Structure to design on (700 residues):
C-alpha cells in the first residue's frame, strides 16, 4: 500500500466513513434475516413523544409537571415537619433536664444541647419531609424516562446559548446535589462545554437549599395557613427554578462568548422507551441512596457547626458577641442587596453546607430575641418578622440562596474535576457576583417602585 | 488488573445506553446500584460478582456506548477494557426493539474479541411492539451465542450465566462472522496487518488494530505502542507511529 493510493481513496470518501458504512449495512442485513416486524404493534410511545417534546406543548407540560411535584412536596411536607419538630423539641427539654440532673455546667447544655442538638433537630425536621417526598417523585419521573425528553426540549435553548444540550441533564442532577451534578458533567465530552456546565450547575438549587426556599416561600408568600397559600408558595418556588434556569442560560451564553469561546458540538440524544417504574425500588432507592445520604451529610456538618455557632453567639468581644460583630460589619453592604448582616453572615458560615444556613440564622436571631419554641414554621416566621423581615427580605434571601457561591463540598468537587485553581476560583466568584447583582437590582427596584 | 489465574473469570458487560444493561448487571450480581434512565450515566466502572456452578465470575459494567470508534471518553473506556483488559467473555446487552442500531456495537466488539455473547434484552417490549426476534438465525449469522432475556423479571438470565460460564472456561468456542469491508478496504487491512505483525507480533487482534490505524485513531496507536515498548520489541517503537501518521494524512 502506498501513500498515493490511500489518499486517492480518501478523496472520494473518508476511510472511516467507509468502515462505518460497511458495519451499518452488515447490521441491516442481519436484522433483515433475523427480525420480523409484524403489524399491529402499539406505538403509543411515539405519539406521547410527539406531545411531550412538541415545540408548543413541551415547555408548558414541563413546567406543569415541575409545579405538580413541588406542590405535592410543599403541601405534604408541612405537617410531618411540625410533628418531627414537636418531637425533637420535647426531647430537647428532656435532654436539658438530664444535663441539669447530672449537675453539668450551663455552658455544656448550651454547647451541646442548644448548639449542636438544636441545629441537628432543625435540619432533620425541616429537611427530611420535603426530601422524602421530592426525591421519590423525581426518581419516578427519571424512571419513566421523562428526563431525556426534558433534555430534548431544552437542547435547542442550550445550543442557542453556545453550550451542550446534555447540560439539561447535569442540571437535573444538580437538583439532588450540586456536587453530584458537577460529577455528572463528565457526560459532556467537549472540555469547553463541560466547564460551562460545571460553572453553572450551582444555579439549580440542591436539596440543601430546597427546604430553605420552601420554608421561606410558605411563610412569606404563602401566608402560611391561609387558603391557597401552598399554591402561591408553589408558584414562587417554580419561579425560583425558572430564574435559576434563565440565569444558567444567560451565564452560559456570556461564558461561551467570552472566556470559553466556541461553537456547540452536536450529539445524539436517544429518547429511551418509557418504562413502567417499579414503585418499590424507586422508593427504596430514592430514600436510601439520596435522602439518607444527604441527610447524613447534613447531620455530620450540622452537629459541629451548631456547636461553633453557639460559641459565636455566646462569646463576647467587647460588648457584643462575635456573631453580632460580624453581622454589624456586614450590615451596610447586606442592606444594599436586601438582606441584613445576620443573613449574610449565615450564608458565609453556611459555606460547609447550605443546609445549615437557616439554623444559623435562627440561632443568631434568638441570641438577642425571645427564646421560643421554634418547632413550627409559624414560630420561625414570627421570629423573622420580629427581626424586620418583609417579603422583600424573603425574596432576596431566596434569590441569594439560589444564586450564591457553591457549598464547600461542591467547590471541592469542582477543584477535583477541573484540576485547576483558576476555574475553582471562578466557580466561587461568578455565582457570588451574579447573586449580589441580582439581589441588588431586585431590592433597589422594589424600593423604588413599591415603597 | 491484578487477578490471579484460576481465581475468578472476568466478564465485561457492554451495550448501548438504555438497553437495560444496568438491570442485567444488578440481576446477575445482586448488587444494587442506581440505574437512572438516561444515556451516559455510568461514568465509573461498577463491579460485581456472581457464582455459577461453584466458579466465581467478576462482572464489570462498562459505560453504555453506541460504538467503539472512540469519539468520547466513555467509548474509549469501554474499548480499552475489552481490548487491553482482555476479559474472559464480553456480554453485549442489546435492545430487542432496535437491534439494527445495537448490532453495530456487537460487530465492532466481535472484531476485538471472539469471546462475545449477545444478550437480546427487553424482549417484553419487543413482544408488545410485535417484533419477532429469531435468535437461532441471529446466532448463526453472527457466529456467536445469542440469549434472549427480560432482565427485570429475570427471564433468560440462567441461560445467560450458563453460556457465560461455558465461554469463560473455554468450553464454548465461537467463530464470529466479521464484517466484510469493501475490497479496497480489505486490501488495505491486509497490508497494514502484515506491517503490524512484524512490529508487534501475533497477539493483540491485528485486524481490528489495522482498522484503527486506517481510521487514524492516533490515541489508541500511542497506547498500543506503550504496551509494546513495555515488552521486548524496542525496534517496534516509532514504526507504529510512522504507520499511523502515514495513514492518517
Amino acid at each position: 500500500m502506498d501513500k498515493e493510493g490511500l489518499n486517492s481513496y480518501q478523496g472520494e470518501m473518508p476511510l472511516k466513513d467507509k468502515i462505518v458504512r460497511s458495519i451499518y449495512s452488515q447490521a441491516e442485513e442481519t436484522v433483515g434475516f433475523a427480525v420480523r416486524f409484524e403489524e399491529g404493534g402499539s406505538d403509543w410511545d411515539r405519539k406521547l413523544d410527539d406531545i411531550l417534546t412538541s415545540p408548543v406543548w413541551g415547555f408548558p407540560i414541563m413546567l406543569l409537571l415541575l409545579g405538580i411535584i413541588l406542590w405535592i412536596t410543599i403541601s405534604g411536607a408541612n405537617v410531618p415537619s411540625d410533628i418531627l419538630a414537636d418531637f425533637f423539641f420535647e426531647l430537647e427539654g428532656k435532654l436539658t433536664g438530664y444535663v441539669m440532673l447530672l449537675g453539668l455546667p450551663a455552658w455544656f447544655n448550651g454547647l451541646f444541647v442548644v448548639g449542636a442538638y438544636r441545629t441537628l433537630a432543625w435540619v432533620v425536621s425541616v429537611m427530611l419531609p420535603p426530601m422524602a417526598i421530592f426525591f421519590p417523585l423525581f426518581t419516578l419521573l427519571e424512571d419513566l424516562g421523562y428526563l431525556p425528553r426534558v433534555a430534548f426540549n431544552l437542547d435547542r435553548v442550550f445550543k442557542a446559548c453556545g453550550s451542550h444540550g446534555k447540560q439539561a441533564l447535569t442540571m437535573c442532577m444538580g437538583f439532588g446535589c450540586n456536587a453530584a451534578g458537577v460529577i455528572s458533567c463528565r457526560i459532556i465530552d467537549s472540555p469547553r462545554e463541560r466547564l460551562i456546565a460545571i460553572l453553572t450547575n450551582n444555579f439549580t438549587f440542591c436539596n440543601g437549599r430546597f427546604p430553605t426556599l420552601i420554608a421561606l416561600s410558605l411563610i412569606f408568600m404563602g401566608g402560611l395557613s391561609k387558603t391557597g397559600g401552598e399554591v402561591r408558595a408553589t408558584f414562587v418556588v417554580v419561579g425560583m427554578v425558572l430564574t435559576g434556569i434563565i440565569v444558567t442560560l444567560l451565564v452560559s451564553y456570556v461564558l461561551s462568548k467570552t472566556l470559553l469561546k466556541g461553537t456547540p458540538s452536536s450529539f445524539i440524544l436517544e429518547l429511551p422507551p418509557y418504562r413502567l417504574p417499579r414503585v418499590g425500588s424507586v422508593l427504596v432507592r430514592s430514600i436510601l441512596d439520596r435522602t439518607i445520604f444527604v441527610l447524613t451529610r447534613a447531620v455530620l456538618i450540622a452537629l459541629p457547626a451548631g456547636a461553633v455557632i453557639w460559641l459565636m453567639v455566646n462569646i463576647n468581644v467587647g460588648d457584643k458577641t462575635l456573631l453580632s460583630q460580624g453581622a454589624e460589619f456586614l450590615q451596610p453592604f447586606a442592606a444594599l442587596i436586601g438582606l441584613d448582616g445576620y443573613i449574610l453572615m449565615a450564608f458565609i458560615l453556611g459555606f460547609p453546607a447550605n443546609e445549615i444556613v437557616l439554623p444559623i440564622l435562627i440561632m443568631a436571631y434568638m441570641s438577642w430575641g425571645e427564646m421560643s419554641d421554634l418547632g413550627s414554621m409559624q414560630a420561625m416566621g414570627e421570629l423573622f418578622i420580629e427581626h424586620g423581615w418583609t417579603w422583600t427580605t424573603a425574596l432576596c434571601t431566596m434569590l441569594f440562596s439560589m444564586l450564591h457561591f457553591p457549598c464547600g463540598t461542591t467547590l471541592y468537587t469542582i477543584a477535583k474535576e477541573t484540576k485547576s485553581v483558576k476555574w475553582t476560583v471562578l466557580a466561587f466568584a461568578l455565582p457570588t457576583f451574579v447573586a449580589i447583582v441580582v439581589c441588588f437590582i431586585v431590592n433597589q427596584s422594589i424600593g423604588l417602585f413599591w415603597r | 488488573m491484578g487477578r490471579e489465574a484460576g481465581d475468578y473469570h472476568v466478564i465485561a458487560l457492554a451495550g448501548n445506553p438504555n438497553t437495560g444493561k444496568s438491570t442485567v448487571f444488578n440481576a446477575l450480581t445482586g448488587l444494587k446500584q442506581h440505574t437512572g434512565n438516561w444515556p451516559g450515566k455510568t461514568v465509573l466502572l461498577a463491579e460485581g460478582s456472581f457464582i455459577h456452578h461453584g466458579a466465581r465470575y467478576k462482572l464489570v459494567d462498562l459505560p453504555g456506548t453506541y460504538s467503539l470508534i472512540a469519539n468520547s471518553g466513555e467509548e474509549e473506556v469501554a474499548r480499552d477494557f475489552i481490548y487491553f483488559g482482555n476479559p474472559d467473555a464480553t456480554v453485549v446487552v442489546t435492545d430487542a426493539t432496535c437491534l439494527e442500531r445495537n448490532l453495530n456495537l456487537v460487530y465492532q466488539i466481535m472484531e476485538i474479541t471472539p469471546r462475545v455473547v449477545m444478550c437480546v434484552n427487553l424482549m417484553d417490549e419487543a413482544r408488545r411492539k410485535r417484533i419477532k426476534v429469531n435468535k437461532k438465525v441471529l446466532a448463526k449469522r453472527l457466529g456467536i451465542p445469542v440469549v434472549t432475556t427480560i432482565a427485570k423479571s429475570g427471564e433468560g438470565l440462567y441461560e445467560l450465566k450458563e453460556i457465560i460460564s461455558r465461554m469463560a472456561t473455554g468450553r464454548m468456542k465461537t467463530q464470529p462472522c466479521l464484517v466484510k469491508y469493501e475490497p479496497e478496504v480489505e486490501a488495505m487491512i491486509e497490508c497494514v496487518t502484515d506491517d503490524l505483525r512484524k512490529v508487534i507480533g501475533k497477539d493483540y487482534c491485528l485486524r481490528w488494530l489495522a482498522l484503527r490505524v486506517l481510521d487514524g485513531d492516533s490515541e489508541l496507536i500511542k497506547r498500543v505502542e506503550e504496551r509494546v515498548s513495555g515488552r521486548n520489541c524496542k525496534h517496534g517503537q516509532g514504526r507504529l507511529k510512522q504507520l499511523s501518521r502515514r495513514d492518517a494524512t
User: Anything to note?
Assistant: Chain A touches chain B through 52 residues (CB under 8 Å). Residues 1-12 of chain A have pLDDT under 50 and may be disordered. The longest helix of chain A spans residues 58-101. DSSP finds 19 helices and three strands in chain A.
